[in-house]
Amino acid sequence: MDKPLDMAVSRFKDDIHSSTHPFKEVDFFSPNRRQLDQSTVDDEGNNSHQGSPAVSIGLNLLPINSQEDKEKQKDKLIKLRMELNQVREENLRLRSMLDQLTRSYTALHSELRRVMEQRAQEFFQLQDDKTSLRGAGESSTLQFIEPCPTRKPRITSENFEEDNIEGEHSSSPNISSSVDRRMISFAGREFPQVEASPAGQMSPSSCRDGSRSPKLLTQAESSNTSTDAASDHQLPRRRARVSVRARSEAPMISDGCQWRKYGQKTAKGNPCPRAYYRCTMAMGCPVRKQVQRCAEDKTVLITTYEGNHNHPLPPAASVMANTTSAAASMLLSGSTTSRDSLTAAASGFPFPYGSTMATLSASTPFPTVTLDLTHHSANPLRQMQQQLPLAAHRLLPGVLGVVGPAPRQPPTVAETVTAAITADPSFTAALAAAITSVMGAPRSGNGGGGGGSSSNIAASSAAAQVVLGASQFPKSCTTFSFN
DNA sequence: CGAGTTTGACCGGCGC
DNA sequence: GCGCCGGTCAAACTCG
C-alpha cells in the first residue's frame, strides 16, 4: 500500500545525492566557520572577498548595482508586506471562525444530548402508557431495575413549573441558555434556581427553603414507589451519579474544577469521612461531588460526581466533566433500565445484558456509574484497543464500517459494558483522553488537592478491561473497571 | 479581610 | 413513633 510512497521517497533521496548542487549542512557557530564560509563561497563561485566572514544563507544579498535593482527590491518588500498583512487578516478570520465553530459545536453537542434524552423520555412515557393499560397486576422488570423511585404526574407538573421558574431566575450566562438548563434539569433536576446564589449569601430562611426544596423533590420522587413504580417512572427525572475510583495519596483528585467543601460526614461502614464539595467555577453551578476513601483499600479515593456543569470548563476539567456527564447520560438514557426498554431507547443500540448492568440499582437511591481507575495493567491502551472495537463492531457496524453479522459468541459482560461506553462517542473520547493522559503521566504522589489537570486520575493508572463489580460499592449500580 | 474549611446541629427519609 | 443515617447548613475558625 505504501510502496508508491516509498519509491517516491527513495527517488527523492537519489535526486538529492546525485544533484550537482547537493545540500550542505552549515554550522554557523562552529569554530571552523571561516573554513566553512570559504568552502561555501567557493562552491558558489561568486564571492569576491575571500577570507571574509561572509555567510551564505541562501539569500541573494549581492550588492545592488543600479537604481533599477533598488526599485525592484522595494517593490518586492512592499509586496511581501502586503502578503504578510493578508496572511495576518486571514489568520484572524480563521481564528474567529474557529471560535465560532467551537461555540457552535458546544451548543450542538448539548442540543444533541438533549434531544437524545428527550427521545428516551418520550419512549418511556409511551412505555408508561402501555404498562398502565396492561394493569398493575403485571409486574414489570422495571420495578426491579428502576434505580430511582418514581413520581406521580402531579409532581411532574410541579417540576415543570419549577423548570419554568428556573428559567426565569437563572443567573446563568448566555452560554448556558435553555439547552444547558434543560440538561441540568434532566440530569440533576434537584437544583432549582436558588442554587444560583452562593450559599454564603443566602438568608437563613431562603437558604433553608431553597436548599431543602430539591430535597423535597427527591422525597416526592421517592414516595409512591411501591404503588405505581411501573407506571409512573420518568427516566429523565432521575439523578445520575458518576463515581470515579482512583488511587491517590492526596485528599482529593484534581479534575481541573474548583470545589468548595461544604460538609463532611463519617458514613456508616467506612471509618474514613466523606467530604462534600460544590463546584465554584460559576455561580449556581449545580455540580457536587463526594470524596471518600475506600474502606477496604485506603489508597483508593472514590469521587462521586453529580449534576452537569452550567459553565464552560477548562480543558483539564472538561475531560473529567465529559466523562462523567456522558456516563451519566448514558446511564439515564437506558443502561439502567430494562432490557426491552433499553433496546428501543434513544441510545439506539441493543443492550443484551442491560438488566445485568442495572441489577444493583434497585437498592440504591440514585443510579451510579462507577469508573474504576485503580487497576494496573502493563498496557491498558492495548487492551482497550482489543476490547472496544470488538463490541463496537457488533453494535455500531455502520459507524465502524463493518458489514455483516456480529461475531459468533455471545458477548461477555465486559464487552457489553464496553459497548455501552463505545456507543457514546463523547464518553469514549473523554475516556480515551483520560487514559491517554494516564499513560503519559508517571505515577506520582498526586501533587496537592486542588487545581491542575486530570492526570492525577491518570496516575492512578487506568486500564481498559471492563468488568462488572459493583458489589463492593454500596452505591454503585454499574462499575466499569479498567483493568 | 475575604475565601475556604471545619464541625456540630438540623432536616427528612426510611426501616423497625 | 423512634432512632439511624445521609445530606446539608452555617457559625466559628483558619489561612494567605
TrEMBL record:
<keyword id="KW-0805">Transcription regulation</keyword>
<keyword id="KW-0804">Transcription</keyword>
<dbReference type="InterPro" id="IPR036576">
    <property type="entry name" value="WRKY_dom_sf"/>
</dbReference>
<dbReference type="Pfam" id="PF03106">
    <property type="entry name" value="WRKY"/>
</dbReference>
<feature type="compositionally biased region" description="Polar residues">
    <location>
        <begin position="219"/>
        <end position="229"/>
    </location>
</feature>
<protein>
    <submittedName>
        <fullName>WRKY transcription factor 47 isoform X1</fullName>
    </submittedName>
</protein>
<keyword id="KW-0238">DNA-binding</keyword>
<feature type="domain" description="WRKY">
    <location>
        <begin position="248"/>
        <end position="314"/>
    </location>
</feature>
<keyword id="KW-0539">Nucleus</keyword>
<feature type="region of interest" description="Disordered">
    <location>
        <begin position="37"/>
        <end position="56"/>
    </location>
</feature>
<dbReference type="InterPro" id="IPR003657">
    <property type="entry name" value="WRKY_dom"/>
</dbReference>
<dbReference type="GO" id="GO:0043565">
    <property type="term" value="F:sequence-specific DNA binding"/>
</dbReference>
<dbReference type="GO" id="GO:0005634">
    <property type="term" value="C:nucleus"/>
</dbReference>
<keyword id="KW-0175">Coiled coil</keyword>
<feature type="region of interest" description="Disordered">
    <location>
        <begin position="190"/>
        <end position="249"/>
    </location>
</feature>
<dbReference type="GO" id="GO:0003700">
    <property type="term" value="F:DNA-binding transcription factor activity"/>
</dbReference>
<dbReference type="InterPro" id="IPR044810">
    <property type="entry name" value="WRKY_plant"/>
</dbReference>
<feature type="coiled-coil region">
    <location>
        <begin position="70"/>
        <end position="118"/>
    </location>
</feature>
